[in-house]
Amino acid sequence: MDQTVAPFLMFEGAAEEAVAFYVSVIPGSRIVELRRHGPEGPGPNGTVMLGRALLGGMEVLFSDSYVKHAFTFTPSLSLFVTCRSEAEIERVAASLGDAGKVLMPLGEYGFSRKFAWVSDRFGVSWQINLP
Asked: So where does this one cross the membrane (predicted)?
């Protein structure tokens, strides 16, 4: 039996919107599978029961939780994006940071040519790097 490890992103109703946004921003990305809750539940009809996406070649699982939790995303766990050009890092950092929160603005910090750390409008934390 093959075992794999993949990040899992749990949203409260915005899973499809968030992942479609990430696919549009991160080169080499696509939604691989999208299963929805039906009218019989247990979650609200049409919400994401389980999805799989490739974000820059990395498999990420995602869903909409129908159970309310006392937590959401934290910046202490982030997705790390390695960009290939100045234009790409500027576009990715601006897109993911739009309507979110900039934790470290795009700049030179000594460990790479350019780097940014943002929490996007869905609360997911991203470190964006140009080596």
From this structure: none
